[in-house]
């Protein structure tokens, strides 16, 4: 079966009570820089989609923390309302 979300951190498998779908980066509290997140396709819009899928299947969703590691990234993070 093709994965619902095309991301190396997205995990999905058939469990005893149905499908289990989650973001392993969020589950293990991984921090990604803005550049890392964007290279993975982990945009604000995609995180909203991932969270909706997790909420629908598990009742909760954990997402990776997006951090800025340079002043230019901090400005971009503030513009996009990302945690710094």
Structural features:
84 residues; alpha+beta; elongated; two-stranded parallel ribbon; 4 strands
Layout of strands and helices, then pairs:
Blueprint: E1 10-15, E2 18-23, H1 24-27, E3 31-33, H2 34-40, H3 44-58, E4 65-67, H4 71-80
Parallel strand pairs: 3-4
Antiparallel strand pairs: 1-2
Question: Any overview of this molecule?
Answer:
- It is a single chain.
- By secondary structure, the chain is α+β, with helices and mostly antiparallel strands.
- It has one domain (10-80).
- Helix content is 43%, strand content 21%.
- It is built from 4 helices and 4 strands.
- The strands form 2 sheets. A two-stranded antiparallel sheet has the order 1-2.
- Strand 1 (10-15) and strand 2 form a beta hairpin.
- It is elongated and about 45 Å long.
- The protein starts with 9 loop residues before the first strand and ends with a helix.
- The mean pLDDT is 83.
Instruction: Classify the helix fraction into a percent range.
Output: 40-55%
Globular, elongated, flat, extended or rod-shaped: what is the shape?
A: elongated
Overall SS class: alpha+beta
Please state the average pLDDT score. Answer: 83
**What count of domains describes the coordinates?**
1
**Residues in β-strands, percent:** 15-25%
Total beta-strand segments: 4
Q: N- to C-terminal separation?
A: 37 Å
Low-pLDDT ranges: none
Write the element-wise H/E pattern from the N-terminal end onward: EEHEHHEH
- What is the topology, as strand order, of the major beta sheet? 1-2
- Main pleated-sheet profile: 2 strands, antiparallel
Overall radius of gyration:
14 Å
Helix count? 4
């Amino acid at each position: 079966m093709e994965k619902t979300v095309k991301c190396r951190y997205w995990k999905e498998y058939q469990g005893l009570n149905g499908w289990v779908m989650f973001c392993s980066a969020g589950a293990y509290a991984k921090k990604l820089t803005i550049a890392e997140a964007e290279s993975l396709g982990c945009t604000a819009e995609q995180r909203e989609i991932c969270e909706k899928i997790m909420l629908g299947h598990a009742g909760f969703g954990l997402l990776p923390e997006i951090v800025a590691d340079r002043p230019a990234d901090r400005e971009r993070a503030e513009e996009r309302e990302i945690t710094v």
